[in-house]
Amino acid sequence: MTIQQFAPGSDGVILDGAPVGSLVREVGRNNAVRKWLVGLFDETSPAERLVPYTAHRHAFGMREAALERLGIQGADATAEPIG
Asked: What predicted TM-score, i.e. pTM, was given to this entire model?
């Protein structure tokens, strides 16, 4: 898996060249990052979900933790988006 920036604070999770999920930054009123949300684009049954998804959505305190859970590291993990 890799990621591709769709918009500031929003990345697409790419598998075999196709977007399969998203990594989105959630910010509070003071623009501080509250959490990072990872979610699938389609609603699949638990038995059909891609590893490492055990639920349709997951929340992480840090972007790096979300990327690690997705198995994205090194050159595949682009710099954190600005904005």
From this structure: 0.72
Task: Judge contact between 52 and 44, C-beta under 8 A.
Answer: no
Structure tokens at 58: 């997951």
Rounded distance between C-alpha atoms, residue 3 and residue 21, angstroms:
9
Distances (CA, A) of 71 to 25, 29, 74: 18, 31, 10
Q: Which amino acid is at 2?
A: T
Contact 50, 40 (CB under 8 A): yes
Return the sign of the alpha-carbon dihedral for residues 50, 65, 19, 55: positive
Per residue of the chain (83 residues), give pLDDT as tens. 899 998 888 999 998 898 888 999 998 888 888 899 998 887 667 677 666 666 678 899 999 999 988 888 764 555 454 44
